[in-house]
Design a protein that fits this description.
single chain, about 300 residues, Rossmann fold, 2 domains, four-stranded parallel beta sheet
Length: about 300
């Protein structure tokens, strides 16, 4: 009888361990990104998903299509489908807060990647690029290459994204101290390549004699370059971007783009996935915000870099 009781206890314990293992393996990680229409965000999403999968979790990538309503649907679907954590690239610093809070209420931790939301309590952690400092360095290089004078244009990203203004402020914190540099136009192109081209075409009609263009990301920079090339001005106008995307790196090699600021999406994505894994294992004391350094890439140091990172 005693042996039977012991065997039953061992069986119960084994079953409990098995159930815990099954529960751990059953955890799913959602990757919700602002858009898959930009190769940079595709890389961010795929890297986050791959890292979560390497840690043993089922993953799915959700595309918000730069639309907060679609993002809301993605959150609701992920929560309803039983995803245990969300690796998140927001569409709107303010508008996305409600979705983060919805997940928190449901007991689902959210780890922001690259873009932040304006909430201290909502996300479990936010892993972001140091956009301001990166654009301070870009601004210094721009001033140097422009020889402290000339007319330039600034093409902004999505106005509801904090990255847009952090980059703009960082750039202007340097450039505005040089009265010989005159900004003749400032317009948003929503971080989109086609819109960047359209905005540049429109600006050139009013200001055909510009000397430089500072763009809030590489997609817009490549769009601006296309417009300049079509107008026969590509060799006369210096174009700068931000991201370290593949086409911009190639553009710098070919002399089309003056410079970009290299973000490190692999670091942000893998950190977010690793944090989710640590959360599942019981950790709760995560840093609320991490700033990942940004490096200026030019023709002088292009050999040290590849798309989305260093060699």
């Amino acid at each position: 009888m005693r042996r039977i009781i012991i065997l039953l206890l061992l069986l119960i314990a084994a079953t409990g361990c098995h159930n815990k293992n099954v529960e751990a393996k059953a955890k799913k990680v959602a990757v919700i990104v602002s858009t898959l229409n930009n190769p940079w965000f595709v890389f961010l999403a795929q890297t986050a998903a791959a890292q979560a999968q390497s840690l043993g979790y089922e993953t799915k990538i959700f595309d918000s299509q730069n639309n907060t309503a679609t993002e809301t649907d993605n959150f609701e679907n992920a929560i309803a489908a039983g995803y245990s954590a969300i690796l998140f690239n927001p569409t709107d610093a303010n508008g996305s807060v409600v979705n983060v809070n919805k997940a928190k209420t449901a007991g689902v931790p959210v780890f922001c990647m690259d873009r932040e939301v304006n909430s201290v309590t909502g996300p479990t952690s936010q892993i972001l690029s140091d956009s301001y400092s990166g654009c301070v360095d870009l601004g210094k290089y721009f001033v140097q290459q422009m020889h402290k004078k000339g007319k330039y244009v600034e093409i902004l990203g999505i106005v509801a994204d904090n990255n847009t203004w952090n980059r703009s402020k960082g750039f202007h914190s340097v450039v505005d101290y040089y009265p010989g540099l005159q900004m003749v136009a400032q317009q948003s192109a929503d971080f989109d390549r086609n819109k960047g081209m359209e905005v540049m075409e429109s600006i050139l009609q009013a200001h055909p004699d510009i000397d430089g263009v500072f763009c809030g990301n590489d997609a817009m920079a490549m769009g601006a370059y296309q417009a300049l090339a079509a107008a026969g001005k590509a060799n006369k106008v210096k174009v700068m971007g931000f991201d370290g995307a593949e086409d911009a790196i190639q553009g710098i090699k070919e002399g089309k783009i003056l410079a970009t600021a290299m973000q490190f999406p692999k670091v942000m994505a893998q950190t977010a996935a690793n944090y989710a894994d640590e959360y599942f294992k019981g950790k709760r004391d995560f840093p609320k915000k991490i700033q990942v350094g940004v490096e200026v890439v030019t023709q002088k140091n292009i050999s040290d870099y590849i798309a989305y990172g260093k060699k």
